[in-house]
Amino acid sequence: MALCECMDTVKVREGPSTEFSDIGRVYPGDIVQFQRFTENEGRVWGEIDYDKYCCVVDTNGSMYFKIREDGGNDSGNVSMLQKNSRFGAVRKSGCCFLCACYLGGLNNINEADDCWDWATDNNKVRASDSYVNIDKYKLATQIAERYGRNERSGKIVKGNHHFYVVDNNGTEIFNSAGPGYGH
Q1: Chain CA centroid to CA 88, Å
Q2: What's the pLDDT tens digit per position in 118-165?
Q3: Which helix (H) or strand (E) holds 6?
Q4: Which residues of 25-48 are buried (b: 16+ CB within 10 A; e: fewer)?
Q5: Domain shared by 21 and 91, yes or no
Q6: Rounded to whole angstroms, how far apart are CA atoms 34 and 47?
Q7: Taking the model in full, what pTM does it have?
Q8: Segments forming the whole domain that contains residue 29
Q9: Is residue 76 part of a domain?
Q10: Are residues 138 and 109 located together in one domain of the fold?
Q11: pLDDT digits (tens, 9 = 90+) for 79-120
């Protein structure tokens, strides 16, 4: 296993080849734990989870990830995933809130933690179960304004009891439970 930091926007695919479907993205600064590596098509592919792969080294030698020397501990610059123990109340639910954070331009767990405090203190999100009390797109706009960020484009979709963000083509671009979850 290797804990790596993403250095570019990289597609997540269902298998270790460009022939496999594109099911999501990993973004600069995201921390990914690869289970194993394989070579195919002149590229090195890293397996994130069962049937979820990213190109680690491209055919031209470009590297999209770097190994974390510090193990990635407590840097604050990690994906906004519900599973992360630092999220507390958002850990079991909160996918809609995290989608609004993503669309509002937030990039890491420290920003999302701060936003959680602001959102619950101002009754935008219910602390007990992470229910978003206002329109989710309005929340994204307010988050972008609060943090001085540009809003990201995307549509929040509700799948199997789970919210995630897709682009105009319906391709997942953010999922707080990991690529492909809840479809």
Answers
A1: 17
A2: 999 999 999 888 889 999 999 999 999 999 999 999 999 998 788 999
A3: strand 2-6
A4: bbeeebbbebeeeeeeeebbbbbb
A5: no
A6: 5
A7: 0.60
A8: 2-67
A9: no
A10: yes
A11: 566 655 555 556 557 889 999 999 999 877 678 878 988 999
Per 3-state DSSP, the chain is made up of helix, strand and coil in percentages (nearest 5) of 20, 30, 50
Sign of CA dihedral 42, 46, 49, 52: negative
**Domain co-membership, 125 together with 161:** yes
Quick one: angle between helices 136-147 and 95-103, nearest 10? 50
Quick one: 50 and 119 in the same domain?
Answer: no
In the three-class reduction of DSSP (H, G, I as helix; E, B as strand; rest coil), residue 39 is classed as strand
Residues 6 or more apart whose CB falls under 8 angstroms from that of 132 comprise 96, 97, 100, 124, 125, 139
152: alpha, beta or left? (left if phi > 0; alpha if psi -120 to 50): beta
Which of 33, 122, 48 has the alpha carbon at shortest distance from 78? Answer: 33
Q: What are the start-end ranges of the E strands in 59-154?
A: 65-67
